[in-house]
Design a protein that fits this description.
Layout lengths: L1 H28 L9 E8 L1 H12 L9 H7 L4 E12 L2 E8 L1 H29 L8 H12 L3 H8 L7 H8 L1 E7 L3 E9 L4 E9 L2 E6 L14 E8 L3
Antiparallel strand pairs: 1-2, 1-8, 2-3, 3-4, 4-5, 5-6, 6-7, 7-8
Length: about 240
């Protein structure tokens, strides 16, 4: 009886240990975990300060009107451009990636930037008119009508045609961000090898994934040249490859 009991206990312990080992093996070899980056990710590049700086530089040429970059930035909404990054895992923690700027997001951001700039510009024109002794109303509608009469186009159209470029061109952004190649996800280190695009043949980045959030941190000299201050970049998961 005692011998049978020992045999049963041993069998149960063996089965429990086997199940535990199998579960750990599953976690290690099959469960994706935080190192599985496969799926569609997205981030938004903030362009507010960049656009305000370009507008401010151009407005400084308007004599007798005082304006600061902070004044211009106060007129700007949060201007962002969407950039998508996809990972397709073809081996354990290895695969291909593709990075791209969304042209429609760029166009929407550019339009919003000029509409905000137009509002700031009209305020400065109104101030200049009052300083010059203009007797008529200088509200936004009247100033818009005066600009239409003077230039034959709306304030937004005039600034787009004759004012500064508020954003880098789409081609410049695509040259910086549009890329593809292969990747390897190590322990908190992402190694990307570029076959198309990119500012370097190989880029090593630190990364942290927490659920649907992916944070990339570049090392010195690896950040994109247009915006060297961009790192860290925070991506949000749009769609998992397993869905």
């Amino acid at each position: 009886m005692r011998k049978a009991m020992k045999s049963i206990i041993f069998t149960l312990l063996f089965l429990s240990l086997s199940a535990a080992i199998a579960f750990l093996a599953y976690l290690y070899f099959y469960r994706p975990g935080d190192r599985d980056l496969s799926g569609e990710w997205t981030t938004e590049l903030s362009m507010t300060q960049y656009a305000a700086a370009q507008a401010y530089g151009w407005l400084q040429d308007i004599e007798a009107v005082r304006v600061s970059q902070e004044d211009v930035e106060a007129h700007m909404p949060e201007l962002t451009i969407q950039v998508n990054l996809s990972f397709e895992q073809i081996a354990r923690f290895q695969g291909t990636f593709r990075n791209s700027v969304l042209p429609e997001s760029y166009e929407a951001c550019n339009q919003a930037a000029y509409e905000a700039f137009a509002a700031a510009f009209e305020e400065l024109v109104a101030e200049r008119l009052r300083m010059a002794g203009y007797a008529e109303s200088t509200d936004a509608d009247n100033v818009e009508a005066l600009i239409n009469e003077a230039f034959g186009m709306s304030t937004v159209s005039y600034l787009m045609a004759c004012g500064p470029a508020l954003l880098p061109s789409l081609e410049e952004l695509q040259a910086e961000y549009d890329s593809s190649g292969t990747y390897e996800a190590g322990e908190s280190v992402l190694l990307r090898q570029f076959s198309e695009g990119g500012t370097a043949a190989i880029r090593e980045e630190s990364y942290v994934r927490k659920g649907s959030t992916l944070v990339l941190s570049g090392e010195a000299g690896t950040a994109v040249s247009l915006f060297p201050e961009r790192y860290p970049i925070v991506y949000q998961l749009i769609q998992s490859e397993s869905q």
